[in-house]
Amino acid sequence: MKLLAFGPHPDDIEFGCAPLLLLEAAAGSDVKMIVLSRGEAGSAGVPEEREQEARRAAALMHAELDFLDFRGDCHLEATPANSIRLAAEIRRNRPDIVLAPHPTPNQHPDHFAAGVMVRDACRLARYAGLADLKTLAPHRIAHLYFYDITQHGQRAPDVVMDISPVAEDWRAVMACHASQVSSKGYIDLQLASARLLGLTIGVEFALGVYVNDPVRVDRLSALSLTARNF
Amino acid sequence: MKLLAFGPHPDDIEFGCAPLLLLEAAAGSDVKMIVLSRGEAGSAGVPEEREQEARRAAALMHAELDFLDFRGDCHLEATPANSIRLAAEIRRNRPDIVLAPHPTPNQHPDHFAAGVMVRDACRLARYAGLADLKTLAPHRIAHLYFYDITQHGQRAPDVVMDISPVAEDWRAVMACHASQVSSKGYIDLQLASARLLGLTIGVEFALGVYVNDPVRVDRLSALSLTARNF
Amino acid sequence: MKLLAFGPHPDDIEFGCAPLLLLEAAAGSDVKMIVLSRGEAGSAGVPEEREQEARRAAALMHAELDFLDFRGDCHLEATPANSIRLAAEIRRNRPDIVLAPHPTPNQHPDHFAAGVMVRDACRLARYAGLADLKTLAPHRIAHLYFYDITQHGQRAPDVVMDISPVAEDWRAVMACHASQVSSKGYIDLQLASARLLGLTIGVEFALGVYVNDPVRVDRLSALSLTARNF
Amino acid sequence: MKLLAFGPHPDDIEFGCAPLLLLEAAAGSDVKMIVLSRGEAGSAGVPEEREQEARRAAALMHAELDFLDFRGDCHLEATPANSIRLAAEIRRNRPDIVLAPHPTPNQHPDHFAAGVMVRDACRLARYAGLADLKTLAPHRIAHLYFYDITQHGQRAPDVVMDISPVAEDWRAVMACHASQVSSKGYIDLQLASARLLGLTIGVEFALGVYVNDPVRVDRLSALSLTARNF
Amino acid sequence: MKLLAFGPHPDDIEFGCAPLLLLEAAAGSDVKMIVLSRGEAGSAGVPEEREQEARRAAALMHAELDFLDFRGDCHLEATPANSIRLAAEIRRNRPDIVLAPHPTPNQHPDHFAAGVMVRDACRLARYAGLADLKTLAPHRIAHLYFYDITQHGQRAPDVVMDISPVAEDWRAVMACHASQVSSKGYIDLQLASARLLGLTIGVEFALGVYVNDPVRVDRLSALSLTARNF
Amino acid sequence: MKLLAFGPHPDDIEFGCAPLLLLEAAAGSDVKMIVLSRGEAGSAGVPEEREQEARRAAALMHAELDFLDFRGDCHLEATPANSIRLAAEIRRNRPDIVLAPHPTPNQHPDHFAAGVMVRDACRLARYAGLADLKTLAPHRIAHLYFYDITQHGQRAPDVVMDISPVAEDWRAVMACHASQVSSKGYIDLQLASARLLGLTIGVEFALGVYVNDPVRVDRLSALSLTARNF
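The joint structure predicted for all components is written out below.
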């Protein structure tokens, strides 16, 4: 299995869905992260520093990491041209599973712009005739999931996982982003959210994602774990 | 694995979710069906005939079948007392997976009343102090899924399955309800719906259900099948 | 100001909205709690013990406490007759603000039954001609709010409050329900939820409620506190 | 065409959908109203007076009027037994079009209880085997529409009509309910709502209803009137 | 009556709403189709071939056909400039009824981009002062409807029609797009969907659309056909 | 308190939320309006005339007024660059409260484009590192509210206010836009809507807005006014 996670800024994947990637890497999956800016507009941290923080985090995660430039932080725009650029990345990397921020508005505009671009890119990646991408073989992903970055408590997740085995690793991954975690309780926020979801499903820490398509299984009993604790 | 499917009338389980039960029976799961009336109010078929039809269908499905009486067809009412009666059945049968009609109104009133009763019963089955049920050990189910009966195209399913391997068996199971299928295109309706969903996920026939709780997996790659065909 | 909080079981008000009541009691408001069962069906605790726990919690909260009997835990039913009984309580107590569990299904059936009964009772309390209540003067409440009990992360709250000043008191109030907090992480769950919401609005602990009617103010600047932290 | 409108209290049909019935009566349709209480709980007006008001209104509307007793105002309950009673009325009256209050909660509990009862009754009216109704031939209605009583601005209507030609008649019909219109601005409320909707579709006064089923036409151009004014 | 249907690619109108146009042409309405790309990115078929397929289909439909260029398939973008270009087409063609793909995301990005562009264009077409369009007289359409292309079962349609009389013609129209129908079951998909909806309303094949504005009629009985079959 | 209201065209703020600004100005708040076009595309009125009308209205409102140029009426586009321009205005003006049109589509495309741009601008205004804005100190607003322009009856407002004390002033403010109010009933529309909402909360005229974030108060009793009249 190959996973490809997209994040608008250098720390979004780490805060939003790193535990899922840590679980996959531990299970032998290939994990790659593509970041769409260098966090140039952040109140703290300069781009070089933020790139280095991301590289340290990626090393901890045993994940490959690339940066793309879409005119910088706060300038992500969900245009066909930008979605086609991401579709090219999908064709190059040929993932089974793609992860992107939730495309619902009302947070950092880059967050949902990234979600929309990735969602559309997953479609475009499979149209063989698209001239802009003719040097890359079409690719059909199997799954697109959306993750939350700092939005919590707005909607129930569709798929949940026990991330307790990687909770300490996650904390270390988030802490790599030293420039972002000094003043604000971002790490506390993510752990509080994971603890809350964990309590509702009966584990210490849990993380959820949102599906773009129905979950498909061979038969109902293939879903053997339960999320019914309260 | 043990599955317990509830249906308000003698043919609702067969039309709504029999393919899922056929797949489970073939995989060695225990399957039981509990029907909450004998279809006394139907425009065609008398109760004895309808019970016989259901028994023939259950035999084809290798499923156990029970009938309960809640004052008959068109009289199902989602009261605490009725939910407690169903909770008793859940305690007696101790299923891992429970199936019920979707609890959203606007169809035969018995359909969503059954959905509400079963949903509430799944909760009540696990409260140890409930005096009405003190002779039966509490039981916590793992999964509750809802199925559609004759409502189609109202909402996207959460979990989908390829039912092509059992499509012919399903047709035979539905045909057991001879009193119901003479005048109206019920069998055609279900097959058209399954064919449509099948086309959208890339198989011949598919069936979907709705979750009551998030799907829980160990990690994302545990969901290896894709529903992305269009 | 007088507040009247309804709870289906002896600990629901304490776990769901006690911090709001503690803030009010500290500000000089009158607070009363009416509990609609003695928690007879719980897996732990007997009714006498649970009533005593609730009385200790009420004492800590400087709140009045009454119990009503609606055929016991797991038997709450949102009938007109039951709503009229609650309307009588509203007429007797004449609150400005009423609190009830959220009336959305899919949790303990008593929880949303209580929410529905209270919502309807608030209407019925003001119809002067209702013969069942003719010995009690009609009363029009000013506000109805809904609280969550153990459902978290399903929907965004409408009104949020900083409860940090009473967080320790809340913990003590919840701990009064010793029979309920031994095996399950209920206290942890509520604190994790309050911590998560607190982080999102920039305080240590926060709690939110849901409105039944629009919020009304004299002018926009009357809402001087901000919930925009992330 | 025959229309059958159900209302929970003596003035609800008149305030909620009388203009639609006036238009139909003028066009030669048969119009009947069935009221499910005598408004016994209202703050003003006694049952005898309210029945007389309703009879005067019905006379103005050239509509037949019946009263049914469901234990009185504030006691309407959406049980199978009550829905079956209404199904009997539907079988007796054999309408093409049925009108009922919107079944969404959060208003007078009788209002949505009536909506739910009528919606379910429309289903039950067509099940030939229902023993409770065996002396009455099954009847399949063609259309079920929901109307608002005093809820405004909560949702957009599905079908709108210019009621300007009957606006004065409507005012007179509402004024028949003298006991209800003295203290509160009910007539003003309905006219303000109709004026607002009228302005949005380009007529003086308009009224909207909600559908239970899709609108069906022979072809798109059969819908020749436009609601696009703003 | 004049109908103007917009489609992002050469086969979308034919697959999505051709039956409605066939019914209109048969009834004497003028029908025009405007296609916003030549399907340049499709996995099968080259632009010249696809244009020819569309022209053959238009001939079968007795419909006029135009192509516009918005930088090609996969590049449709809902900008003001593009909406203004479509508004110009609306002013030139002066339709009563406009049809466009549903503007809800999550399918081919061109599909919902086209829906958004057309929806906005219908507004812009009527602002007399818009300098970009000053050589064209403003035009106010009467109706905007949205159609589904390959999304099925996501939401209930607002207006449904019996398309059985033109089902065979529709099949022939779809078959004109030979390059698109060889490998994938597109024709089967549309017919399965139409058969399913047909069964639910009691005809052989049916098609539904979504409204942008409420349906307006003179009076309720003007809607004489029923969609209540199940 | 400082309020900053954004409007796409010269009359939108006046028609949509002027009463709220009038109440604030009367209470001593600073009020500023920024208009994003000069209404160049309107069917009536030329830009110079419309600017003068807006200036007269602003004078009546004791509000400051600025115009920005985003390529003119009908050309507003929610791009990052445009949102950054508005963020610059927010940094320059440093408001506590920001008002913008509701960002939900399906009205004049400029209306929701303006809503989206302002919503995103409120986020961008607080990111210190954003190079485009480095000469302006970051600013964190306290509240973002959305207002309706000519959409009514689509959704219930979150916050309502009695605007009766300024209803006559509002009428005068709207009447300043003489070029817009001659042919269409815009003033009537707004007053009918305000009258309708007023009746539902028990005052003569009321206006509502929509929140972007939860309302935050110190405690529940801080909300002392009630909106429960019907």
